[in-house]
C-alpha cells in the first residue's frame, strides 16, 4: 500500500471518531441554545479541552512543515525547533480561538479586555497540552525509535496523534480547574 493510501486510511479512521463525539455531546447547544443541557460537568470540560486542543493541533500541523521545509534547528536538533515553532503557533491559534469564543458573549468589554481574558483562560491549558505532547514526542525521538521518524513518514503522524492524546490528557485537569474557577467558560 502506498504512502498516500495509508494517510487516507488514517484520516478515515480518526475524523469519524472525533465527529461521533461532536454528534453525541456537541450538537445539543448548537440545535437549540435554550435547550436544557443534560451533559455532566466532565463532558463540558471535555469540550473546553477539545476547544483548547484544536488551537494546539492547528499550530502543530502548521509548524511541522515550516520546520521541515526551512531545515530550522535549535541546538543542532529539529526536535527543539519543532517545539519552538509549534508552541508559538499553537499559542497564537489557541488565543485566537479563545478570543472568538469569548468576544461574542462579552462584546461590551471591548477587544483588549476580551483578549486579556482569552490569554488568561487558555494559557495554562495550552501549556499543559504542549507539555504532554512534547513529552511524548521526546520519547519518540530519543527512546522509542533508533532513528526518529520524519514528517514525510506515516509513523511520524501516527506518533503525533498519540502525542495529541497525551496533550489532551495533560490539559484536561487544567481545564477542569479553569472552568470550575470561572476563568474559562464551559462548552
Describe this entry's structure for a reader.
The protein has 187 residues and is mostly helical. It has one domain. The chain is built from five helices and no strands. The termini are far apart. Residues 1-17 have low confidence and may be disordered.
Overall morphology: globular
What is the terminal separation in angstroms? 41 Å
Overall number of domains: 1
Instruction: Give the C-alpha Rg.
Output: 18 Å
Classification by helices and strands: mainly alpha
Overall mean confidence score, pLDDT: 82
Pick out the low-confidence regions. 1-17
Beta-strand percentage range? under 5%
Helix share bin: over 70%
Report the order of strands and helices.
Answer: HHHHH
Helix segment count?
A: 5
Quantity of strands, as a count: 0
* Main beta-sheet annotation: none
In short:
The protein is mostly helical. It has helices spanning about 5-30, 40-70, 80-100, 110-145, 155-180. The protein has one domain (about 40-180).
